[in-house]
Design goal:
mainly beta, 5-stranded antiparallel beta sheet, 3-stranded antiparallel beta sheet, globular, binds zinc ion
Length: 85
Amino acid sequence: MALDGNAIGGLLLEVFAADMTSALATCATCGAVRPVAETTVYLRAPGTVVRCRTCTSVLMVISRVRGLNCVDLTGLLALQAEANK
Ligand SMILES: [Zn+2]
């Protein structure tokens, strides 16, 4: 079942120590820029997989290894937190 980025707000807060749901994610594949809250999220893949809603490319993979969150951001060209926060 696909969720949206709001579903991993708590997880992202743990990883980035900031509310990232309003951050702007730029897809490295198609260049689409959207708030993280509007991405497509799959929780049942190995780890948490965040995909671009425009082209379905993988943007982020967050997996838990021995109690640590391992974050793969290679699908992101940029991840920009809101400047006014
Ligand atoms: Zn894309």
